[in-house]
Amino acid sequence: MLMYEELTRDINAAAIEVHRELGPGLLESTYEECLCHELSSHGLSFRRQEPLPVVYKQVRLDCGYRMDIVVEAKVLIELKSVAALLPLHEAQLMTYLKLSGFKVGLLMNFNVELLKNGIRRRVL
User: Fold this and answer.
1) Which of 6, 58, 72, 87 is the most buried (most CB within 10 A)?
2) What is the average pLDDT value for the chain, to the nearest integer?
3) Domain boundaries, the chain
4) Is the distance from CB of 65 to CB of 92 less than 8 angstroms?
């Protein structure tokens, strides 16, 4: 059984609903706003644009990193609206997982015909 399998399935269902309604081609911020609305309607708690400090020599430093959405304090979501996901985007998600201590992350690219082709699930 996958870690947080049911939760990630619920998150994916909410994202697919947003994509069905809006389609590809909009700004990332639009998808974020609509996905948060959909998560809320599914009864899921979340935080948006959560600051992600870097701990350097035991000092927490604000380096400007922000996690797009954290659901149920368990799953980190990084949203994109790009022509194609690149290794850089996956590296960003993995870095955010390492810095945050979260174990499960979803990288979602809404700029695709079928959203299931734009979702990557990663576990640290």
Assistant:
1) 72
2) 96
3) 5-123
4) no
- Across the range 99-113, mean pLDDT stands at 97
The contacts of residue 109 (CB under 8 Å, 6+ apart) are 80, 81, 82, 84, 85, 89, 118, 119
pLDDT per position as a tens digit, 9-43: 999 999 999 999 999 999 999 999 999 999 999 99
Task: Return d(Cα 80, Cα 76) in angstroms, integer.
Answer: 13
pTM of the predicted structure, to 2 decimals: 0.94
**Short-list 61, 66, 75, CA closest to 120:** 75
Q: Which residue, among 21, 69, 23, has the nearest Cα to 100 in the 3D structure?
A: 69
C-alpha–C-alpha distance, residues 52 and 42, integer Å: 26
Pairing of strands 75-80, 104-109: parallel
* 86: Cβ contacts below 8 Å, ≥ 6 apart: none
Q: Which whole-number Å values give the CA distances from 103 to 26, 43, 44, 112, in the listed order? A: 29, 22, 18, 26
